[in-house]
Amino acid sequence: MRSPILDYLDTIIEQTAHIESGALADYIPELAAADPDRVAVALCTVNGTVYASGDTDHEFSIQSMSKPFAYAQAIEERGLKTVLKHIGVEPSGEAFNELSLDPQTGKPRNPMINAGAITTHALLDDDEESAVDRMLGLFSRLAERPIKVDEAVAASELATGDRNLGLAYLLHSSGALRQEPRTAVTGYIRQCAASVTVRDLALMAATLANGGVQPNTGERLFSRTGTRHLLSVMASCGMYDAAGDWLTTVGIPAKSGVAGGIIGVLPGQIGVAVFSPRLDPHGNSARGVEMMQLLSDDLGLHLMEASRPARSSLRETREVTVEGQPATVYVLQGDLVLSSIESLVRVLIEDPPATELVVFDLSRVDEVLPVARRTASETATKLIDEGHRIALVDPEETVVGFSDSQGRAVEWWSVERLEKGTVGSV
């Protein structure tokens, strides 16, 4: 059975196919030569499961999406107090490459604009290993595969990097830069030229959603307090001079890159990544912003949506015999949100029910968000198509009127009817 979450991601691509606005980043020759019709979307839960659709294996340069991870690494290595001495945390309200510093402190206003990112990169350098090598090692641990620099992109950016070099000299003259300007810019550009896919980015974002712990390896890469600080900065500064619009509409900490990628983080639940190369006037992917907007609306991602923390929706699975017929019973619990319903769907796919009759006991379920209801409806369709009967035990009527995605009704059982079943082995 194919996961309905993959079907949903397919629809996100279909629903945004009409968006052809925006332009490639033509000030970097390699990016100007990109295929403008490439598109991909991926999400990764905090348990490390990645779902992706579109050009999922296409590699593109991480660009400014490297900034959050470099900043988090600088906090780990130098400590937050030291980092804050060099870089502020206030939204700039300016373009990402603006030639400006805070007039009172002489520092970059935040680490998500180029001035702050160059300063961050310089903080990472030491005598034993270059900042670029350390960042590539970090990216590789986040993505669980070797991440390398796209040398063609790096050379193209270095050849047209006068503005970043100007920023570095401005920083150096104010005493904010710990390295020689050309060295800092060269390292920063190579950091931004690392090649990634949307799958990589979703997993990297999920590490931030998981409090700094890589979901699959269990390795703590960033401290919990450092991750919280980073996500706060991403929420207010990650989308440049469109950050206010982003926070009010999409409503999650995010970071974009001029190759066309955007990452987003819903703490405690998922990391999201989209890719489409055409950029809007703010330097953000035009189609990517729309994909993120749809994901936020459909999945209830906005941070200001009141909901309780997610946990696995599956309390237990057991086999019973009811009225002489074998049945597999899935006992659910808590609030059904995206991450909790995903864990149930994954169980159904990896270990399908062996009986014709499948019962979902919702007696312990408190609330069902729209995304969980829709995902459950699509899952019911797949189960019915595979020959299963579905029964729901829902004494609190949390999913009243529920049917599969084709309108086919399911059976409604009382708690008493289920309790009459004879429990067998799972």
What are the defining features of this structure?
426 residues
What's this entry about, in short?
The chain has 426 residues and is an alpha+beta fold. It contains 16 helices and 13 strands. A hairpin with a 4-residue loop joins strand 1 and strand 2 (50-54).
**Number of beta strands:** 13
**Rough outline:** elongated
- By DSSP (H or I, 4+ residues per run), the number of helices equals 16
Note the run of SSEs as H and E.
HHEEEHHHHHHHEHHHEEEHEEHEHEEHE
> What Rg is obtained from the alpha carbons, in whole angstroms?
24 Å
The overall average pLDDT, rounded, is 90
The fraction of residues in strands falls at: 15-25%
Q: What level of helicity do the residues show? A: 40-55%
Largest sheet: 6 strands, mixed
Strand order of the largest sheet: 12-11-10-9-8-13
Distance between the termini: 21 Å
